[in-house]
Structure formats: structure tokens, C-alpha cells
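step=predict obj=Jacalin-type lectin domain-containing protein n=761
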Amino acid sequence: MLSKLKLTNLRRRSRQSLNVASEIPLAHSGARVPDPHQWGSDDAANGVTITPGGSSPSVMSAGTAWNDSARASISSQQFVPPVPPKPNLEEPPGEDLGSPALRRQSTYINPHIPITQPAQPFSPSAPRILSISDGSWAFASVLLVFGQCGPPDRPQDGTVIVHHHHGGFPPTSWPVSDGFFRALVYLEPGPNKLQFEYASSRTTPLSKSQMTIHMMPLAAPPLHLVILLGKDSPATFDCPPDKIKTQGNGLDTAVKKFRMAAYLWQAYTAEEMAKNKFGRRTFRFEETWTAESISHRDKMPRMVPKVHVLRSERTVAEIRDLDIAQQNSSGKKTGELWNIAYQAVEKHFAPKTAYERKHVAVLILDSKWDPASNVITGHAALGGGSGFIQMGIFGSHSLHTWPTFIEDVVPSFTDCTRTDTRIIANDAGQSGSYWEACCIGIGAFLHEVGHAFGCPHQPSGIMVRDYIRINRSFVTRESYSTRTKSPGLRLCMPKDECHWHRLDILRFRFHPCFKSASDPPFIFEGDNPQVYGVGVAAVIVSSTGAAWVEIYVNGTLQNYYEVFPKVERNLTVSVSDILSKVPPAEKSRKIKLSVFTIGNGKLDIDDFLETAQSFVKLSGGEKAYQSMKLGLGGGAPSEAILPIGTNRVLNGIRVYSGSALNGIEFIFDDSSSSIFGNRGGSCSEFFLDTRRGESLLGFSVRSGFWVDGCDILTTLGRRSPFFGNSNGGSPYTMIPPRGYRIVGVSGTVGQWVDSFAILYM
């Protein structure tokens, strides 16, 4: 009985203890007291926006009275960023999520989470970020922001100071021009709580605002940075004497400048992608852990882009040979610098397969201005690729004008110091001042990197020569231009910036180097679309769907149209629609279409009108359509026709092959046959189940210069073994469009089949 009584008392005391504990004020329940040494600990007193938990931003009045428990509650939440929704890279999410290729892109879309709005500062003078919303996601270490501060009706100059997450990066200051500013913000993986302070001669005290940006590095193949030296190079670059004293011109300085320029490329491209509603996806770099940083005041070890320093097998004299200088109009081997760089890069990285494909930006450090010949030796501005290397190369003649650290970005893009052509180059006659040389150097190099990513020259933007005003993306006031002989813009707004062309943006959206964690797995062999003419139109068949179509006449881009975000695996392109998109004077000329797919595939239709109307007259007088041919051809014509309008039935198919496809023979139920090609190599048979109505659907073919082999596809979903070389060429699926059936095959045959097409009605 005593034990039961004690247990009862214990239970009652426990219940009372809980009741008492629930009445204890929050200030005495273990709430964290704000640290006065951390920035923002006095934000409540200054009227700064506070975003507790995952709720919407709230405003605190500076005159509001708070008791100790309330202050402790607010402070304990103030430094804990909200748990963010997972990133949705597409803005808006208008993609067809029913597509297998795109279904995984819906992983980060949560309809129950409200859209985050920009943090609204309490003071009308406090900085307001216009380019990105509070709680947004970024995917690179440096974020480019555009904002406004001060009273909107009284624009004024001043300075914005950016304080980084937990003081983990030195504060940086950025000029305000007529109330607008641009800033580069360093981010670390995870949530980054940022504070922006505005100061001007008319504003006291400082006006502040805060926002949280979440950074998640992309999981994609990187862009590699390479500095190329001659085998006997002293590892220095062209630089005026005064700058040699202040910043140096050695390899260490070159690495820092190259790294900073690469960060500018990355941040600029991310903003361009965001402006085009594709989120802030951008390319990433191969990184390394080092004590170096992009701030001269930062000594903390960080992950930074790795710069490979490669020694060429050529000497400095060979690299600076006038005969191979790209700008030498009388040079005999002006493309040789590309070969020199390619050999060094290929030897260092040694990629063997498409999975190891490398994208590389190469800075030639031994470039040298030659005043006597008026040529920059050791310099070439080239981009493209072959094999498993995609590469852009550029000289170092303007490197002395590039920023070394993040604090140097604005000074570098506003430096009016005149170029002394007795010592350094005035590239293209458009680098008469240091800031203009900086634009040409960083912008033209980015142009070549664009070629490495597959971008051709465009009507406008970075891929023409729009990069001469790339400074406007990083500053708000432009300096005097020696190129135009006029003062620069007083205020550089987004409409005044240079841009990536929309077609470049589309290429980046589906490029493997811009892949995000929410994208479907990338197929490195790519998607190889096919085209089938049907008289008044052509049908583009793709396993992932067409993304956009470009229209060319005489090699000049005339128009384009987008299909994405719709998923059209069988895209019908009518002749009348294409002609309506071409100028009247060009309609009688040969029209070329380039079709790009969601799976990073591409199809060039050299003569669209001929392809759409590609009739073939069969031996019985019937007309059939012919698909595009695989292989280069060159052999004797050959064809095999299936029965049309008779009672004969296709029973089976014999395939003759060895290291390539030799021939295909159709076997009918009356023991007759029809052969395409020859009977060389070994013979394999594949029979159809005619009792169940099985018939020939098409072929899966591997082809390059010739046809390596194929397997057979049937209407019951069966697939034969592969006949021939299963590792040769590229894969293609040849099936007639919906509503049509295969009636034969045709092509050309030499020692083996060197071109192949299907016939259909």
C-alpha cells in the first residue's frame, strides 16, 4: 500500500511539474541570447526585416517595446535561416511533366509552398534587390545582383556594403549611381544570410536590409581552366611597367586574374539564364581546396577553380612566330596555335570516351605585342573542338587590365588609363583604354568558350561582338569610351547590357555542362533524330522530343521557333509554315533546317523542301517516300521492295554482316526473296510470327561513314539480336511516322553497305 501511495504522489508531482514548466517565461527556458559581436544582432532596433522560420518577411518598428522574453525569442530565430523548398530551376514550371525525359524535373516543385517574395526593407532608403528574391536558389559561388536604394523619387549616389553569411567572407563595397547598384556576392553551399547596407552623404544612419540565398553546386561536367606556357617560358605576361610594380606580371598573378575572370563568366551566364526563365543554372569549374581566395583580405582556405599550368613542347619563339599569329594577314599557318594548344590539352587530360569529354578554356600566357609588325604574337581567338575535347583559346595581351580580386572588378571596368601601343596592344583598335581592353579580353575569351559549348556566331549578343559592352553587366556608370569618342552611359540599366542570344541560352539549357541535380540522366551518345518527308510536310522523330528549330537560307539564320516546353516526339513541320517564316526574296532558295532535341541531339536537313517531297518511284509504278540516308554513300545503288497489293507475306529476314552490314534479304511465304546489298559475311535469320499478325516495323541502325550493323524491330514489340559491329558509328532508329508503313529499303553498296534508307507509304 505504501509503495502504491508513493507512486501516486510521484505521478501527481510529475503532472504538476509539467504544468509549472509550461508557465515558465521563454527567457528562462534556454532561449539563446543574441551575440552582440555578430552583425545584425541589433537589427530589431534598427528596423530591419526579419524572416523567422519559414514565414513571410515581417517588419519590426524601431519604436516597438519588447520584453526580454520576446527579444530572446526573436533573436533566437534571427540567425537561423528558414528551411527552404527544394529548388525549381525552371521559371515558371511550365514543362510537360508527363514526359519520361522531363518527369524528374518536377522533383523540386512543391505546390504547397508559397512563392517567396523579395524582402521588403523597413526604411525606404534601404537596398532593395531587384534581380533575385529572398529565399531563392543559386548554383555558383559568385552571385551577380542588381538593386536599388535611396528614395525612388530622389535618386542619389552612394555606396552599398555587402556583409556575408556569419562574416565568413570580408565585406565588399559597391558604388551606387542614381540610386542603382550592381554587386558580386560570394556564396557558400547551403543557406547564406546576407546584409546590404546603404550609405550616402544624405543618409544617416546606415539603411539596412537582409535576404537569404541558398546555394547548391551543380552536378555536371566542369569547365577546365588551363594556362599554356612554352617549354622555356619565364611565365610572365605583357604588362606596363607601372602595373608590374603594383600587381606583378608573374604566373601567380595570372592564375588569380584568370580565376576572377572565370567567376565573372559564370555569374554573368547565370543571370542571363535567369532572365530567360531557366533559373540560375550555369557551368561549373573543376575546383581545388586552397588558401587562395578572390578577396585580397580573405586568408581562409576555400574551394576555388583549379587552374592547370601546362608546358607545351614548343618554345616561346615558336609560339610567338609571326607566321602562326592569327592576326597576321600574311601568315601561312594562322591556325597552328590551335594545334599547339590542342596537343598540350589532349596529352594532359587524355580523354578516351564520350563520358570523359573535356571542355577547356586555354589562356596562352606567352602572347606578346610586336609594335614593329603591329601584330599580337602568340595569340589566337578560336573555339570549337574535335574528338573528345571542346576548347576555347585566347591570348594574355590584355590580362594586365583584368581584375585580380573581387574588389578590383569595378576599378577594372572603369579605368580610363590610355593604352600605350609602344608597350602593350590595342586589340582590334577597340582597346584604347584599360577598361575597354578589359571588356575585349574577358568578353572575347567568353565568346570562344561559347564556341566550346557549341554556340555558333549569332545575329546579336556575345557570339557576335556585343561583348565590347560587357562592363555594363557589372557597373552602373560607364567611363569615357575611346572607341566611340564619347562619354559613357550615366546609368547602365539592364536594357543596356549585352546578352547571350536566345539560341545560345537554349543550347545551354540542354547542354551536359549545365545539368542540374533535378534533370533526367544524360545520355552521352545523344539523341539522334530522324526526318521523314510526307509531301506537304516533314515529320521529325526523336526519342526525347524536339526543343527548337532554326531556319537558314544560304548559311544565314533567317528565323527560329521553339517547341519546348512541349514534348513533341513526332514533330510535324509543314512546308507552308516554314515558308511563312522566310523573307519573300529567299523562298525560292535552298532552305536548311537545324533541329535540336531535349536529349542534346541535332539534325541538319540541308534541303528541307526536297526532303519533305522525297518521292521514289518503285518498280511496280507506285510512289513511296524515302527517309534520310545514313552513311556517306559512294557505292552502287541497291533496293529491296516488300510485296504491295499481293497475297505474298513477309515470313522472315536474312541479314549478312561481318565487321559491317553487307546485305538484307526479305524472305516471303512463297519461298521467293528480295535482296538489298550482297551476301558477304555471315548469314543470320530472323523469322516473324505471321500467325499473330507480326510484321516489320523498322530497323535500329548504327552508322557513321558507312553502315556498321542493324537489328530488326517488329509490330509486336520484338527486337532481333544485333547483326554487325555493335560498337561502330552512332545509333539511329528508323521507323516510319504514324500512319505509314515500311515497304522496302534502299541505299548504296560497295564492299559493304555505305548508305541506307527505308521506303514507306
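step=describe
The two ends are 98 Å apart (CA to CA).
step=end
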